[in-house]
Automatic annotation (TrEMBL):
Keywords: Membrane, Transmembrane, Transmembrane helix. It is a multi-pass membrane protein. Pfam families: DUF1232. Its main location: membrane. InterPro entries: DUF1232. The chain crosses the membrane at residues 83-102. This is DUF1232 domain-containing protein. It comes from the Bacteria. Residues 88-122 form the DUF1232 domain.
Length: 146
């Protein structure tokens, strides 16, 4: 296994506008992530990054996506050890969900197609924000451009 698994974390109590997209939904998906899913995200990095950059509601999160990909790469290479599996799985769920055009609210619906993507991104970020900050601090301490 590429990454160590961590005990399941209790989902937070973030309230969501759409009751279909909530912590329980995302938590369920996170617990089902496997190493193959991590590889799927890595293989589709360019397409996911392009979607983040080209979709108006998601554009401001493009840089965040780059940081997530960089973290996954450093963990996979063994450069940045001791990342909880829950963090890796959360990143994978968020990126795969954004990549999927036919999710709970299909992306091609004008005006509301990205609401669920933003909700999943917000939930995931709420769970892993501390780990992303630690990663960025590590990159700065090691002289890498953040």
């Amino acid at each position: 296994m590429l990454f160590r698994k961590k005990k399941e974390k209790q989902p937070s109590n973030i309230s969501m506008m759409d009751n279909k997209v909530n912590d329980d939904f995302v938590a369920e998906k996170v617990t089902k992530i496997k190493d193959e899913d991590v590889e799927l995200v890595m293989d589709n990095e360019e397409a996911i990054s392009q979607k983040l950059s080209n979709a108006s509601p998601l554009r401001k999160y493009a840089e965040l996506g780059k940081i997530m990909f960089a973290m996954l790469k450093d963990v996979k290479k063994g450069n940045y050890p001791n990342v909880p599996w829950f963090t890796i799985a959360s990143i994978v769920v968020v990126l795969l969900y954004i990549f999927n055009p036919l999710d709970l609210v299909p992306d091609f619906i004008p005006g509301i197609g990205y609401i669920d993507d933003l909700a999943v991104l917000s939930i995931g970020m709420g769970w892993i924000e501390t780990d992303l900050h630690k990663y960025l601090d590590w990159r700065l301490a090691n002289g890498e451009n953040a």
